[in-house]
């Protein structure tokens, strides 16, 4: 596909098209999205019914609206307290059952685990109307795993004289960190993307949001190398957002850490997402060890 549409929607369509056709994602819609809980409710319950029907039966989630609401409230509380990464890794306990929210990458010969891992639903929604008030504010893209939002995107395009920095400004000025979707730990990472650069932030905090580069680097400097086969930033959706890579990031790299100031004893909680190079180096080392011992 030649990149001819110069608006953001062109880049948006390109990314979604690739994720759906090549990476095995589903495409969600605003009708699937429950703004009150910031989830793709359609896919969340399809995943749970498909993988854990007995647990759903015990909880009576599909029998009574009250039970469904209790379930969603519990999930909401766990996400607020522990964050998306921990909930995906460790699931949630709702008496009398333990609910798996994400099936981890299987070891080589574990056939059953592979079957379950393949039941994870990766999806992407365009122009997500996330706001619970009537403004219908929309986010360019949101990626969900099993109905839970994990990554948001604001896209810009240099052809329209807007760059990654305009996307950063949009996050800082137009995306209210009090909105459920943008609250700390509810998503793993927020990406600002244009056709040449990528930046990311793990904690939206209005004007104080801190964005780091997620570029490959070029000629020992910043930015990305020219890409003869497409857009400079397409490694993001072609590689990083592949199901295998994104699963490994969730399982091994992304995390929430608590730091204590030795003098004031004040605790700060940080959410960590790997920079491109950290990820790249570790993945290459692991591949080498696997191949060469």
Structure description:
With 293 residues, the chain is an alpha+beta fold. The chain has 10 helices and 13 strands. It has a 7-stranded mixed sheet, with helices on both faces. A two-stranded antiparallel ribbon has the order 2-3. A hairpin with a 4-residue loop joins strand 9 and strand 10. Helix 4 crosses helix 5. The longest helix is centred in the first third of the chain and has 18 residues. The N terminus is likely disordered.
State the shape: globular
Strand content: 15-25%
- For the secondary structure, the number of strands is 13
Total helical segments: 10
Task: Give the class from helix and strand content and strand pairing.
Answer: alpha+beta
Radius of gyration: 19 Å
Helix proportion range: 25-40%
> Average pLDDT value?
92
Q: Tags for this entry?
A:
single chain; globular; 293 residues; alpha+beta; two-stranded antiparallel ribbon; 10 helices
Structural topology:
Layout lengths: L7 H15 L3 E3 L4 E2 L4 E2 H11 L1 H7 L5 H18 L1 H7 L1 E3 L2 E3 L11 H7 L4 E8 L8 E8 L2 E8 L8 H11 L14 E5 L4 E4 L10 E2 L21 H6 L2 H11 L1 E6 L6 E6 L3 H17 L1
Parallel strand pairs: 1-6, 8-9
Antiparallel strand pairs: 2-3, 4-5, 6-7, 7-8, 9-10, 10-11, 12-13
Describe the structure concisely for a colleague.
The chain contains ten helices and 13 strands.
């Amino acid at each position: 596909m030649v990149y001819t549409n110069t608006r953001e929607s062109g880049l948006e369509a390109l990314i979604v098209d690739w994720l759906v056709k090549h990476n095995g994602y589903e495409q969600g819609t605003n009708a699937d999205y429950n703004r009150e809980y910031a989830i793709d409710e359609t896919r969340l319950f399809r995943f749970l019914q498909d993988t854990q029907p007995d647990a759903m039966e015990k909880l009576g989630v599909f029998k009574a609206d009250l039970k469904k609401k209790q379930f969603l409230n519990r999930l909401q509380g766990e996400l607020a307290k522990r964050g998306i990464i921990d909930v995906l890794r460790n699931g949630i306990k709702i008496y009398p059952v333990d609910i798996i929210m994400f099936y981890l990458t299987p070891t080589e010969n574990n056939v059953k685990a592979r079957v379950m891992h393949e039941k994870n639903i990766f999806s992407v929604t365009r122009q997500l109307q996330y706001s619970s008030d009537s403004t219908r504010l929309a986010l360019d893209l949101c990626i969900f795993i099993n109905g839970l939002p994990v990554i948001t995107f604001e896209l810009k395009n240099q052809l329209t004289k807007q760059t990654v920095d305009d996307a950063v400004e949009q996050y800082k000025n137009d995306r209210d960190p009090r909105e459920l979707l943008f609250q700390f730990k509810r998503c793993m990472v927020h990406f600002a993307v244009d056709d040449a650069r990528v930046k990311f932030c793990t904690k939206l905090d209005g004007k104080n949001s801190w964005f780091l580069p997620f570029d490959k680097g070029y000629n020992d400097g910043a930015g990305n190398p020219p890409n003869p086969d497409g857009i400079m930033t397409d490694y993001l959706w072609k590689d990083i957002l592949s199901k295998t890579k994104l699963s490994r990031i969730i399982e091994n790299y992304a995390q929430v850490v608590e730091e204590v100031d030795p003098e004031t004893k004040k605790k700060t909680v940080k959410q960590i997402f790997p920079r491109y190079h950290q990820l790249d180096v570790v993945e290459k080392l692991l591949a080498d060890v696997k191949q060469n011992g």
